Amino acid sequence: LLQTNACSPIATNGLKGDIWDNFTSSSYKQLSTVGELTVHHPVSGDEKPFQPLGNGRGYTRPTSLISLWSSAPFLLNNSVGHLEYYDLPKDTHNQSDYETVATDTNNGEQADTLNSATGQKDYQDKGYAGNNNEYYKYPEIYRKAYGGLDPYSPSVASRMAVFNDSINKMLNPDQRRTDTQTHNPVPGYIYRTTAASCIKVPVGYSPIPGAQKLGWLLNWIAPWAFEENGDMKIGPFPEGMPVNLLMNTKIIPDHDEDFGMDHLLKIASLGIDFIGVAKELGGTCTPEELVTPGVKAHAKSVFYNSDLVDSLLGLSKCPDYVVNRGHYFGADLSKEEKESLIAYLKTF
């Protein structure tokens, strides 16, 4: 019905025996299985069917429309509306997030400028105050998109600017961001890494007993996975890798699933593929190595030419990677009807 991303509706925290068991009703846990969903492969973009399990999975609790103007961006994952980090030009990625601004010595607040035409002070909406008279600096592209307003500010003007952007994308799906890295088009975008990156686990958090004392031995056995001090490092994974390939991996079945041989075989297959890819990636995880063109190209080649993607998909808790699709109600309205609806929603 909604066609939105399935990962929140099929979350299992509210199932019987799970952490939020007491926060869901018995009737929720007895809901019938929802219909088959269509999801998309995060590399090829190909459609494939996905059938969620029952016992409450697949249902979304509708929220109130009161003060809708204040709560954009929209959808459960805030994926419709508002410019994101990965929408910005590459040359803004390494800029400092904060800048020092002039302050009023009387009260320590950000200084305002005097408008020569009106004789009134013009408030400089730069962002949120931090330490040492620093303010969060949002890129210039935000100023152009929101008329100089900070989209993270709680001010009415800023919330309304983000609302206008978000609600127009809700009612006009063709304006939503689309993914450009799948072989075939998908109806939205996929959360992806914005740079070559590694998984790093300090030795103090290592699941390996005695890793702190045996770091030198681990490094000798698997230098691609361990530093001499016992820190673990896996990677580098390529820029643009779908984040949820790793984040949604279901190592242990849910309470209402069997931990059978089929699952064990999938775990074993994934382990073999993961170790093989990690070894070939080489653990080149220093900041200098991660920006080297050769390292980045090698990571992309190794990762996408392996069986690891499909092994991870086979154990995915939620193989729905397109985050901003769905909720197409109102898309068929005329331009005038959409404008009237938006004006009405602002009054809630």
Give the topology.
Layout: H1 26-29, E1 37-40, E2 47-50, E3 98-100, E4 113-114, E5 121-122, E6 134-136, H2 140-146, H3 156-171, E7 197-201, H4 215-221, E8 232-237, H5 244-247, H6 261-281, H7 287-290, H8 293-304, H9 308-314, H10 335-345
Antiparallel strand pairs: 1-2, 3-6, 4-5, 7-8
Helix pairs in contact: 6-9
Textual characterization of the structure:
- This protein is α+β, with helices and mostly antiparallel strands.
- The chain has helices at residues 26-29, 140-146, 156-171, 215-221, 244-247, 261-281, 287-290, 293-304, 308-314, 335-345; strands spanning 37-40, 47-50, 98-100, 113-114, 121-122, 134-136, 197-201, 232-237.
- Helix 6 (261-281) packs antiparallel against helix 9 (308-314).
- The radius of gyration is 24 Å and the shape is globular.
- The chain starts with 25 loop residues before the first helix and ends with a helix.
- Residues 89-137 have low confidence and may be disordered.
Provide key terms for this protein.
348 residues, alpha+beta, two-stranded antiparallel sheet, 10 helices, 8 strands
Task: State the gist of this model.
With 348 residues, the chain is an alpha+beta fold. The chain has helices spanning 26-29, 140-146, 156-171, 215-221, 244-247, 261-281, 287-290, 293-304, 308-314, 335-345; strands at 37-40, 47-50, 98-100, 113-114, 121-122, 134-136, 197-201, 232-237.
| Helix share, percent | 25-40%
Q: Class by helix and strand content?
A: alpha+beta
| Overall pLDDT | 83
Name the helix and strand elements from N-terminus to C-terminus, one letter apiece.
HEEEEEEHHEHEHHHHHH
Shape descriptor = globular
